[in-house]
Amino acid sequence: MRPMLLLGLAVALLAVLASLLPIYGQHVFILVALYGAVALAWNVLGGMAGQMSLGHALFVGAGAYVSTVLYLNFAVSPWVGLVVAAMVGGALGAGVGYTVFRCKLSGVYFALVTLAVAEMALHIVSNVAVLGGANGLAIPSRPDFANFQFHSKLGFCYAALGVLAVVSAVSLAIHRSRLGYVLLAIRENERSAAALGIDVVQGKVIAAAISGALAALVGPIYANYVLFIDPESVLGLPLSIDALLFAFIGGLGSLFGPLLGAVVLVPLTELLRGLLAGRLAGIHLIVYGVILILVMRLAPRGLWGLLSDAIARRPK
Prior knowledge:
Shape: globular
């Protein structure tokens, strides 16, 4: 069966599942879908192209702020803001990528540059009044489809699932296209790729643009779901680290490994918060660290690799 058809069936099944979940279950579903989308977007650049980014919160935050400011100040529908957010995220990705990659910076240097740019954006937004400054921006609660607000969490489940489906479809299309092979060649050995006639800088810039655009799609969904954004929540380093961790634990560079990482870790985080009732703040980070060490030691290809191996060993 064609992969896109399988993806469509999976989305349909998840849509049915979302309608059967209790309210808190739908909340976790939304978080898994949004974090999974960010992790898959990160994987286009960090996994497929091998360029480790520590600043993907920049794209999510840009998407959230663009959509919110357009809605609050210019009465532009968040649906339009969603498209504009993707365009801004893509432009930011291409701009940062071109600036860095044409200087032949990669590896830890690229990671540090993306971290620095994201932190600069956080501090700039924190001091700009029209963007709400450090206090953030509150979105009025006006449940209506035109305002991208729904009367129940189920509507947001479908919105988050829609974004996840788009990101998954793009990742699948890249994986099966010439661009996917170009990014694979760049990831494995840039000099060999260049010797084969591949424009390495162009390939990495394209990956950064696509990754930025896909990550920016998550911002407006999150903003309209919680009805509030501030620099720390959508531009902070923890969001960038989460995307990286989900990809590493799920399976770096694999097709849907980052999503699997989010499926495992996000509910685990919510479970720990519920059990501990606010005590031992940050305990989920310790759990993440332990899981990451175990995965790197016992399953270098991540959870997706373990799953693939288990399926391959299954008696036919």
